[in-house]
Design goal:
12 helices; single chain
Length: about 220
């Protein structure tokens, strides 16, 4: 049974007394996000919402690339942290060496979500949830291809997309509250959310293996 309350409680238990490194990882995420979004923010404030910069697509692409790299490294870190709360910051830094993997994953994921969104917003949301486990799969199984990770993600989320959506909504209040703290609450929210979703990923993968929707061979394929 998909128990989001249990996933959240386990996330809090893992973080208890072990906040230092997750906060550091979150700070890196925030700084990188600020750096790559600063030009867009500047143009908006300087020229108004009606201003269109020729360089905007470039900034957007650079932001996507940076997000992919940091997201992959963060996922590798939190997967390790979930098993061993004493995981060091070096785990995050080492994962940055696989920057291309993170970039390809996010670009491929974003492309398909965008294409499905052209069919109205609901299909886009459904597919975003379907593809939501890709980073976890690729971080845990480094030899898995991006395309195959998408297929496996779709399989393990079958029957649980509604529950995943509700779990996302359950953090909505904290996200809104974060806006009143100028992002400072992210130091608490980001580690908490990351570990909660990793707990749900482990559940989804285990259920998919148990029911035969995927096999161990599917997870070990190198294509």
């Amino acid at each position: 049974m998909f128990e989001r309350v249990t996933f959240k409680l386990n996330a809090k238990k893992t973080l208890y007394g072990n906040w230092k490194v997750p906060i550091l990882v979150t700070l890196v995420n925030l700084v990188v996000s600020l750096i790559f979004n600063a030009p867009q923010i500047y143009y908006r404030f300087a020229y108004g919402d009606g201003y269109v910069s020729v360089s905007s697509p470039i900034f957007t692409l650079l932001s996507l690339i940076a997000t992919g790299i940091i997201s992959y490294a963060s996922t590798v870190f939190y997967l390790s942290f979930a098993e061993n709360p004493k995981t060091s910051f070096l785990t995050f830094l080492d994962a940055l060496n696989y920057w291309l993997r993170g970039v390809l994953t996010l670009l491929w994921q974003t492309l398909w979500i965008f294409l499905w969104s052209l069919c109205f917003i609901i299909p886009g949301i459904v597919k975003a949830i379907s593809y939501s486990q890709m980073f976890y799969l690729l971080a845990e199984y480094p030899k898995m291809s991006v395309k195959h990770a998408m297929k496996v993600s779709m399989e393990i989320t079958k029957g649980y997309r509604g529950q995943l959506f509700m779990m996302c909504l359950s953090f909505f209040g904290l996200v809104i509250l974060n806006t009143f703290t100028f992002g400072l609450l992210s130091l608490y929210i980001n580690p908490y959310m990351n570990l909660t979703f990793i707990n749900s990923y482990k559940f989804l993968k285990a259920k998919a293996l148990e029911t035969g929707r995927i096999t161990e061979e599917d997870l070990k394929k190198e294509f």
